[in-house]
Amino acid sequence: MKITSAKVIVCSPGRNFVTLKIETDEGIYGLGDATLNGRELSVASYLQDHLIPSLIGRDPFQTEDIWHYFYRGAYWRRGPVTMTAIAAIDMALWDIKGKALKVPVYNLLGGKSREGAVVYAHANGVDIEQTIDEVARYKDLGYLAIRAQSGIPGLKSTYGVPKDNKPYEPAERGLPSESLWSTEKYLRHVPKLFDALRTRLGEELHLLHDVHHRLTPIQAARLGKELEPHHLFWMEDPVAAELQDGFRLIRQHTTTPIAVGEVFNSIYDAEQLIREQLIDYIRMTVVHAGGITAMKKAADFAALYHVQTGSHGATDLSPVAMAAALHLDVAINNFGIQEHMAHNAETEETFPHAYSFSEGMMYPGDTPGLGVEIDEKLAERFPYQRAYLPVNRKEDGTLFHW
Ligand code: CS2
Ligand code: MG
C-alpha cells in the first residue's frame, strides 16, 4: 500500500479545527487531528508546506519509521507545532492500518484492557452555589468524576468560568482578551469551594480541580495541603511546569494527587516528573505529544513509576483526537481517566464518530480504524476564523500565566 496524497482541512464549526486526511492507492484513507488552539494555521502550514511532500509514496504501515523520519529528520526537534503535525500524520496512519486490517485501533495496541474509559466532565459556576448546582447536574447525567471551577470573589473573570452560561472553552475570535488575576484571592477561595462541595455532595464523587499553571511551588503546596481533607482525584497544573524540579517542593508537603502535561509535547517534558514520581497522572494527549505511537511509549514509561494517564480532552481537541485517545485509553494498563468536554452540535455533525458516552464512561466503538469521519462538504460551510486564547495579568499589570 502506498500513500498517494494528503490534504489539510481547516474548519470552524463553532471553533477552529485542523484535520489531516491521508489517501492511499488502495482507496483507504486515514484522519488525524492537527489542532493547536490559537496557532492552528502554523500546524496547517507545517504539514502542507513541509511534511506532506515527503509523505507521498511511503508505506502507511510504517508508523514507527515515519514517526522518526519526521521527528529526527526535521533536525529542529520537539515543540507544539512540530509535534502536533507529527501527531496528525501518526493518527491518520493508525487509522489506515486499522481499516486495512479490518480491526479497531485498540486491537493493534494490545487489545481491550477494559470495556470503557471513565471520563470527567467540566462543571463551573460564577460562585460556590452555582458551581455546586453544576457539579450536581453532571452527577445526575451519570458522570463519576467532575472538575469544579468557580468564580473568585473580587475577580471579574477567571479560568474555567464563562461570562455567560455556555460551556467554557476559549479561544476568542479577534485579538486576545486580557483578564486580571489575584493568587491571594484564589487561594482564599478554593478550599471553601471544595469544603462546600463535599458537605453538599458527599465523599464518593471524584472531584478534580485545574489550577491552570498559576501558583508557585510553595503556594501549590499550601493549596494541596488545605485540600487534603476533601480527597481530590487530582489538582491539575499547579505550577508552570517548565521547572520539573519545582514539583519536589509540592510533593514534600501534600498528598493531594497531581496531574500535569496537557501542554507537554514530548516525554522529555515529563521525564523527571515521572521518574521521580512527582506527579500521579500524565495529561499529555495524542494530538499534541506526537500521536498514538508517542503516547503509547509515554504511557509505558509512566507505568514503570506508578503514574497513570489522564489525557487532555477539552473541546479544542477535535473528535478525531478524542477517537484516537479512547482507543489508547481502553488498551493501556495504566489508564487513569479521560477528560471529556462534549463538542457542540455543529462539530458533532461535521465529525461523525463511533465513540459514545454512557453512565460516566466513554467507549471507542468497534469500527475498523479510529471510527471517526469528517463531512468535508459541511466543513466547508464553517470557514476558519482566527481566534486566540486569553492573556492573563496580575492585578498590578504584570503579565502572568493564563
Ligand atoms: C484546560 C483546557 O481542559 C483543561 O484542562 O486546561 O481548557 C485548556 O485551557 C485548553 O485546552 C487550552 O486550549
Ligand atoms: Mg488543564
Automatic annotation (TrEMBL):
SMART domains: MR_MLE. Transmembrane segments: none annotated. Pfam families: MR_MLE_C (PF13378), MR_MLE_N (PF02746). Keywords: Lyase. Gene3D superfamilies: Enolase-like C-terminal domain, Enolase-like, N-terminal domain. Its EC number is 4.2.1.8. The keyword Lyase applies. It comes from the Bacteria. This is Mannonate dehydratase. It comes from Silvibacterium bohemicum. The lineage of its organism: Bacteria, Pseudomonadati, Acidobacteriota, Terriglobia, Terriglobales.
